[in-house]
Amino acid sequence: GISLMLLFKMPVLGFGLAAMYLFQSLRQSAQSLMHLYRNPENKGSKKRILATVAGIVVFLLAGGTLVPVPGSVNGTGVLERSNDRTIRAEATGFLAISHVKSGDFVSEGQPLCDLINADLDLNVVRQEAIVQQLEIQLLQSLSTDRSAAQRIQENLAQARREYQELITEQDRLRIMIRDEGQIAQDDGLRFQGRFVHKGDPLAKITSGDWQVKTLITAEDLFDVAPITGGSVDVCLTGHSDSSCCGRILKVARAGSRKVSDKSLTHAGGGDIPVNASTKEAGQSFFEVTISVSQLNESVLRHGRTAVVRFEREPVTLAMLLYRRSLLLLDQLRIAG
User: Fold this and answer.
1) Which of 39, 181, 198, 248 is a plausible cystine mate for 205, CB 3.0–4.6 Å?
2) CB 63 within 8 A of CB 26
3) Does the pLDDT value for residue 21 go beyond 90?
């Protein structure tokens, strides 16, 4: 009874006392049974002694599986800001120069990068020459042929519209930033001279409060029962002194096998095994979003991983074994 009480209040001490009492009890019982077994007077009772020993062992094993075990659930999460936007190329061309890099703070109206498109530049020059030629023809025809002048004027208006469209397309070769924030990813800006299609992602800008998004299994979700506003412990990976009490902002209502963040998978150094082609895990995961506003701003970096510790309600060993067997059967069913 004392061990069970300490088990809930002080788990380490409770387990230690319970193990000590159990060892002493088993040792004394084993000595008594061995004495009875070796006593010549109990030669006819050896089978009953062995049956008694087997019964005690089975009883202890069965009882041990019913003892509630307190603990916690750890999940690996990724640090990011609450708002993010991907900047995409608005025109096609070759990357000429990048004006920013990952980690830079940027403001609205600041250039991100410049593209070059020789074909577009040539079309602009050609269309400008067409406009100039039509303007000269219009001046000449105004004094000689009014009907011809009207046709030329219509052609000139069309040529000017096409010229303006080309100029607009040429201006889009300079990619501008339309949001204030921090450059979180610059994968599309790293290789000068690479060909960029219209719509290709160039960089990601983030802003807002810092938060951690972690994934937990359905079993862990049932055990820890996270609720919005609840508290968890968060510690940045590689920074044992950078920890805080995080606040749960959101718990996903539905799980998914798709793991979009590579850093959480085995391929990115994480703990979740996924299929190399489908990027799907063997079981569904639920996303939990946690606010970490108490962490020091100097150690916060987009994409850095953190360990999130959820307190778990005590669960019996029998229940844990039962859940593991169901999970194994489910995985075997999917594999088959």
Assistant:
1) 181
2) no
3) no
Residues 6+ apart with CB under 8 A from 69: 314, 315, 316, 317, 320
Nearest Cα neighbor of 307 from 61, 23, 72 is: 72
Q: What is the DSSP letter of 220?
A: H
Torsion of the alpha carbons at 247, 253, 258 and 261, rounded to the nearest 10: -20
Question: For residue 253, how many other CB atoms are within 10 A of its CB?
Answer: 6
Nearest in space to 22 (alpha carbons), one of 37, 36, 3: 3
Q: Tens digit of pLDDT for each residue in 42-58?
A: 555 656 656 666 666 66
Rg (CA), the chain: 35
Of 285, 314, 272, 238, the C-alpha closest to 69 is 314
pLDDT in tens, 134-161: 988 888 887 777 788 889 899 999 999 9
CA proximity to 164, closest of 113, 115, 130: 130
The predicted-structure confidence for 95-115, as pLDDT tens digits, reads as follows 999 999 988 999 999 999 999
Pairing of strands 93-98, 111-116: antiparallel
pTM confidence score: 0.62
- Residue 103's CB: how many other CB atoms inside 10 A? 11
Helix (H) or strand (E) holding 308: strand 305-316
Do 244 and 294 contact (CB within 8 A), yes or no?
A: yes
Q: Side chain identity at 176, as an amino acid letter?
A: M
- DSSP state, 175? E
Cβ(319)–Cβ(66) below 8 Å = no
**Which has the closest alpha carbon to 98: 188, 232, 30?**
188
